[in-house]
């Protein structure tokens, strides 16, 4: 009888040693927890900040919940669906842990997260980040735009998040107007998907509402994303409340009438040949979740992103 001794993981490559799905170390997909990211292609980190929430707080527990939900996906990675590959055969992935900030100084959060992201990006890794409320995407965009220049934003959400902003607010509903005003994103090459809210001004974004996607289908949505974003460098931000509350109840500001997980995956999985330079998944709030529905959806999206990065690395998409 051979006994699998999974821990601790010693290598950034490989799928061996996933361990029990119901116990053990809860790093994302059982990747090595390490802050030594030499040689890593993708670095996961959590941003457990939710003080910019307007309704129900709790997304600070999102990174933990996504990691815990990912564990049962870890052993499926050796033959990942629907890509039919082992992403860890050639993609080195580390879990850096969470960005630390002092909860007593919420006003420092932009500075702290930007510095965290800068430090990782300096090592030429791709960041896969877990919020936290959606405000964390603003400092992430700051650091990414410093490195890559103005980015296309591919934004999955129920909310436009371009409501009036004075440049100072800690508000998870206005930071994309700020990002646009500061030149971090090029709204003419950016697209919002699954939206169920209005703003006075679309700020130059192409907006595909959830009803539009439900009427026209995922294939036409992809055609639109391709038309707007093209091969421009793009940052992908996925607010889990883009999904209907039936598919993602565990979130702070749920809005009925959203995408099914099937619709969202059909769109997301068609973007393998896009030039995506970073991704975050935000607004998972496990206190409102049931049966980990929301956390599993988020973990699956993140797992998909890793598979896509493995394909991009092999296919030299850049
Ligand atoms: Mn939202």
Structure description:
The protein is of the alpha/beta class and 318 residues long. Helix content is 30%, strand content 15%. The chain has helices spanning 62-74, 109-121, 137-148, 175-181, 210-216, 218-229, 261-268, 293-315, and strands spanning 32-33, 42-47, 93-98, 126-131, 152-156, 191-195, 206-209, 234-239, 276-282. Strands 1-3-2-4-9-8-5-6-7 form a nine-stranded parallel sheet, sandwiched between helices. β2, α1 and β3 (93-98) form a beta-alpha-beta unit. Bound molecules: manganese (II) ion. Manganese (II) ion binds next to loops. The site of manganese (II) ion (MN) has 8 residues, from loops.
> Strand fraction band?
5-15%
Radius of gyration equals 18 Å
Counting DSSP H or I runs of 4 or more residues, the number of helices is 8
Helix content: 25-40%
- As for the number of domains, it is 1
Bound molecules: manganese (II) ion
CATH superfamily: Ureohydrolase domain
Mean pLDDT: 94
CATH architecture: 3-Layer(aba) Sandwich
What is the H-and-E element order?
Answer: EEHEHEHEHEEHHEHEH
CATH uppermost class: Alpha Beta
User: What shape does the CA trace take?
Assistant: globular
Report the count of strand segments. Answer: 9
In whole angstroms, the N-to-C terminal distance is 45 Å
Judged by helices, strands and strand pairing, the structural class is alpha/beta
